[in-house]
Amino acid sequence: MTSPPDTGAAPQRGLVGYVHVIYGLHALAVLTALLGARSVALRFAFSLPSLIAVILNYARRDEARGSWLASHFQWQIRTFWFAWLWIAVTSIVAMPLLIIFVGFFVALLGFALIGLWVIYRIARGWLALREGMAIPSAAP
Questions:
Q1: 33-36 long-range Cβ contacts below 8 angstroms, 24+ apart
Q2: Contact 115, 123 (CB under 8 A)
Q3: Distances from the Cα of 12 to the Cαs of 15, 65, 70, 71, 128, in angstroms?
Q4: 91-100: Cβ within 8 A, 24+ apart
Q5: Which residue, 19, 21, 42, 106, has fewest beta-carbon neighbours within 10 Å?
Q6: Dihedral over alpha carbons 89, 95, 96, 99 (to 10 degrees)
Q7: Longest dimension (CA), the chain
C-alpha cells in the first residue's frame, strides 16, 4: 500500500465515512450470501445493498476527485462492474456445457472464484481506507 498522494486536495468532510458506508454495504451483501448459503458473486452483483452502494459511488465520486479517496471510489465501482462481467462470462461458458453435465461444475467453480475475488477486493480496499491510504492500483 502507498500513502495518500500529495495532491493538495483534501477529501470533503464526511467523505471518508461515506466510503466506509459503501464498503459496509458491499460487505453486508457478501455476509448475507455466506449466512444464507448462496453464491457470494451473485448476491454481491444483484443484492439491494450492493446496488445501493454503487449508486452512492456514482453520486459522490466527483467530490473525491483529486484526493486519495478517488482511488477508493474507482476501486469500488470497478469491483461491482467487473463482478457483473465475470458472472456473464461464466454463465456464457457454462450454458452450452450443461448439455454434457459439466456446465454446472464450471458455473460453480467460476462463481466461487468470483466470490473470493470480491471478498479480497472489499477487504483490501476497506483495510486501506481504515489506514487512510489510497488504493495503489485501481486496476481489477
A1: 33/115
A2: no
A3: 6, 10, 11, 15, 18
A4: none
A5: 21
A6: 150
A7: 59
Q: What is the pLDDT of residues 79-125, one digit of tens each?
A: 999 999 999 999 898 888 878 888 888 888 999 999 999 999 999 99
- The residue whose grid cell reads 454503487 is 54
Angle between helices 103-130 and 15-35 (to 10 degrees): 150
8-state DSSP, 140: -
Residues 57 and 30: beta-carbon distance below 8 Å: no
d(CA 45, CA 63): 25
**The residue type at 60:** R
Residue 79 near residue 26, CB atoms below 8 Å: yes
